[in-house]
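Deliverable D4.2, example record:
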Amino acid sequence: MSLLKSKGFKYFKNLIIGLGASAVMLGALGKINSYPWGGMMITVGLVVEAILFAFLGLIGPDKDYYWEKLYPGLDKYGAAITPLTAGESSGAPRSLDPDVVEGRLGGMLDELQMMSKSLGSLKALQEVDFQQTGQQIEAMGNFYSKMNDAMASLNETVEDTKIYQENLASLNRNLSGLNSVYGNVLSAMKGPAS
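Output generated by the structure prediction step:
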């Protein structure tokens, strides 16, 4: 089995799969365009692919990680395991509870996702240019002070408007009084002449 795990075999397997797929595609192109070699090329490519797929089904998938070397028995469901790095263990080895392992792995995945988001935020913060921030804060301070001045001026205007309204009301009363006096004067002037 060491030949099947070697780097050279994996490269050769991928090369043959790629060449077989290329032969199928060229054969399909030849068949579509009605070239005489199209039928032969597609047949050769499909035979090579069929043999390779049958072979791949027999050898099984490659493992990416070999954790069972560090934790012997890890590849057996419910096995009692002790890590090789733990040294001498006191007592019996612990049993591997799949639910606990799944829960811990899920928790670790959540933590890794949160760390990833935090690192993304830190990267965005690193890219921010803080040189103009002082100027922006000063400009905001100026804006707020001018806004406060405008509000104070507006309050004064409201007070002036109230005084103006009171003066207009007083003037209106005085004019009403003058109108009635003028009406009496006119009545008095018309009375003796008739």
